[in-house]
Task: inverse folding
């Protein structure tokens, strides 16, 4: 994987992980998330995959924590969490009813903001697919 591709994935992961920070998001803050996602050049389907299969499983617990507000997840920590979860997520995806339940449960705390991000992605014309 090239450094450019790695940097784009990290940008997408950090942008999406912001949804799990302990804060209320204004429209402007959600638009900032979308602008960072757009910078990656990834298609909508890849952004959804990164959110559902990588970011949400790595950071969903933060939505249930009372640790307070901070600015951003550490990218090295986030990358390690994602890698640590990879095999578990692949296994759960094969158990369809369980995966769907788990996915809804992980996304539930940020569901409204995630819907807004997806809607904003539609209006900012993210590519349908990537040739990268």
Result:
């Amino acid at each position: 994987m090239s450094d450019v591709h790695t940097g784009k994935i990290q940008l997408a992961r950090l942008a999406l992980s912001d949804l799990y920070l302990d804060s209320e998001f204004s429209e402007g803050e959600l638009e900032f998330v979308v602008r960072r996602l757009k910078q990656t050049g990834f298609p909508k389907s890849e952004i959804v995959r990164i959110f559902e299969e990588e970011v949400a499983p790595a950071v969903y617990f933060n939505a249930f924590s009372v640790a307070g507000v901070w600015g951003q997840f550490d990218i090295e920590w986030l990358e390690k969490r994602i890698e640590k979860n990879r095999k578990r997520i692949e296994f759960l995806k094969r158990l369809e009813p369980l995966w769907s339940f788990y996915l809804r449960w992980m996304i539930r705390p940020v569901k409204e903001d995630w819907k807004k991000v997806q809607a904003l992605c539609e209006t900012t014309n993210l590519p349908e697919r990537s040739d990268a």
